[in-house]
Amino acid sequence: MIKATVFADTKCILGEGSWYDGKNGKLYWLDIFGCKVFVHDFASGERKEYQLDQLVTTIVPKEDGTGFVLGMRDGVYMTDNEFKTFKPFPMPADANFAVRRCNDGKCAPDGKLWIGVMDLNGAVGQGDQYVVGDSEIYKEIPGIDVPNGIVWNKAQDTMYFNDTLKAQVYAYDYAPGHVCNQRVIFEAGPGVYTDGMAIDEDDNVWVCLHGGAKVIKIDPRKGELLDYIDVPCPQPTSVALADGKAYITTAAENLTAEQLAKYPYSGGVFVAETGVKGAAPFRYKG
Hints:
By secondary structure, this protein is mainly β. The protein has one helix at about 255-260; strands at about 1-10, 15-20, 25-30, 35-40, 45-50, 55-60, 70, 75-80, 85-90, 100-105, 115-120, 125-130, 135-145, 145-150, 160-165, 170-175, 180-185, 195-200, 205-210, 215-220, 225-230, 235-240, 245-250, 270-275. The protein has a single domain (about 1-275), classed as 6 Propeller (Neuraminidase), CATH 2.120.10.30. It contains one helix and 24 strands. The protein is globular, with a radius of gyration of 17 Å. The N and C termini lie far apart (about 40 Å). About 50% of the residues are buried.
């Protein structure tokens, strides 16, 4: 068991989307319902906060360094490094953003963004996974409850993915742009939900248990629980792995006054000394 401590007391409503940029020494994360992007620069210790005009659910830097791809309330956008200009991608009509929104997402090894779209109220079976590129956007995994936490292994032949409401972690065979052969590799059990996920250099996956106050380390090849991080907050939401550390976002959403008094840093970011190096996440290449 590994203990997590407070890294940033940001008091997010729904902290999410942590992304560690080892190349530039920065950590990015979001407050979905606070409509905020946070950028922490490790070299200077400076932390910036950007207020956006709608929900923001996913952030991935562009490969060329000119900005980011964002998942938002009504679609996927390209933005600059100061979050001043927003260019929407032409999402297909069946994404149906009248009653749905983007959720978690990451880029695949080929640089395309895989992003989940979910019902605004989390209705069962109303979520889908889309692949987004500069010239092609399409639905790849239909009929999910709440699509969440997505990573690829070192060999780039397997994708891991969560359906939050089912509290399951899936593996798929992966080839660029497509997946097949879905199988369940881990079930979290009643009362907790599988949320954000990261993968380390040994191809072990780290999964946030929303409602479980833990980030669990799983060997996905065996479905075996190897270790866990104890988070002093009931609702861990996303995890980014750096060199020997894990950065964990959390949520204060739906906690009672009693719970908030017991866990006053809910909505903040926590850090844990794991001794494990994360696999560098992929950037958007279009």
